[in-house]
Specification:
This protein is of the alpha+beta class and about 140 residues long. The protein contains four helices and five strands.
Length: about 140
């Protein structure tokens, strides 16, 4: 039997820049510069890190202003561990923390890549077009 540990962290202990970048790229997400990650990670409102034995294999973070707006970001699981419900465990921990600490009127958003929208739908997320709005983004050059 494998040993899986899900650890939660607040601002005090987000993943290291190296772990953050490695998990993102291993899972097929775009890389972030070390400088950008070093600025971003301490501003995590809540984060989780999933480990197999001692090796980090998945993560997810919540960023936001702590009152009116939150965004779930950086959900990823190493490809060698995908398909085992680990993304679901990460989402469970993130949504439990939102339900525990976020005000009732807070707006929580995320960007769903491909079939991930089906997982997020299980946690109450709906496509923004259901509200007559469209998600938009801009990546800085």
């Amino acid at each position: 039997m494998t040993s899986l540990t899900l650890t939660s962290s607040s601002r005090a202990s987000p993943p290291s820049v190296e772990v953050f970048r490695r998990l993102r790229t291993d899972a097929g997400l775009s890389d972030r510069s070390p400088e950008a990650a070093a600025v971003a990670l301490p501003n995590t409102w809540f984060g989780v890190l999933l480990r197999h034995r001692v090796e980090p294999i998945g993560m997810g973070r919540i960023i936001g202003d702590g009152g009116t707006a939150f965004q779930i970001v950086d959900i990823c699981v190493h490809p060698g561990h995908q398909g085992r419900g680990l993304g679901r465990r990460i989402m469970e921990a993130l949504t439990e923390e939102l339900e525990r600490r976020a005000p009732s009127s807070a707006y929580v958003s995320l960007i769903a890549d491909g079939p991930a929208k089906f997982l997020y739908g299980k946690f109450g997320f709906v496509e923004t077009s259901s509200y007559g709005s469209v998600g938009m983004s801009r990546v800085m050059p």
